[in-house]
Amino acid sequence: GTTPTPTPTPSATAAPTGRASYTVHGQDYGWSTVYENGATAGVVGKRLEALKFKAASPTVSGNVTYRAHVQNIGWMDWTAASSSTFIGTTGRGLRLEAFEVKLTGDLATKFDVRYRANVKGIGWQPWSTNGQTAGTLGQSRQIEQVQFQLVPKAG
Fold it and tell me: Which pLDDT band, with edges at 50, 70 and 90, does 87 fall under?
């Protein structure tokens, strides 16, 4: 009677942790403090004019590229996220109407970026993911609040 050796249960690989951090530039209040991981940034009744977004994971390389659709300008160029870059405009009184966010490098293989906008006259829109458009086009509606999340991909 030998006791069979129990087969060790394979340990699931821990999903990488990621942090979404962002600041917004709004009508009358300028740059906000930093918000993280789904917290609401922005003020109802005040247009957003610009935003700065960063996605980071301690074990995963990669970055964010994003762009804004701005009143009187339309789609602006895709911008790589950094401490010195943002999307939209400041000091011109132009409303941010839509934006798109994509992950690059290994971040894009390990995470989804989710984001949504609270649009004047519409309210909170459904979540957009990985390059989809948040906000509206051709409706002259300002985005007033935003939320961002970095979500580990399943598997």
Answer: very high
Q: Tell me if 64 sits within 8 A of 53, measured CB to CB.
A: yes
Exposed / middle / buried, residue 12 (Cβ in 10 Å: 0-12, 13-18, 19+): exposed
For residue 142, which of 126, 113, 122 has the smallest C-alpha distance?
A: 122
pTM for the model? 0.90
The three-state (H, E, C) secondary structure of 79-131, written as one string: EECCCCCCEECCCCCCCEEEEEEEECHHHHHHEEEEEEEEECCCEECCCEECC
pLDDT of residue 16: 74
- Computed over every residue of the chain, the mean pLDDT equals 93
- Looking at this protein, which amino acid is placed at residue 95? R
Match 């074990």 to its residue by tokens: 59
Which tokens sit at 94? 């132009």
* Mean pLDDT value of segment 110-117: 97
Token pair listed for 61: 């390389």
Q: What average pLDDT does this structure show over 139-154?
A: 96
Q: Phi-psi category of 42—alpha, beta or left, where left has phi over 0 and alpha has psi -120 to 50?
A: left
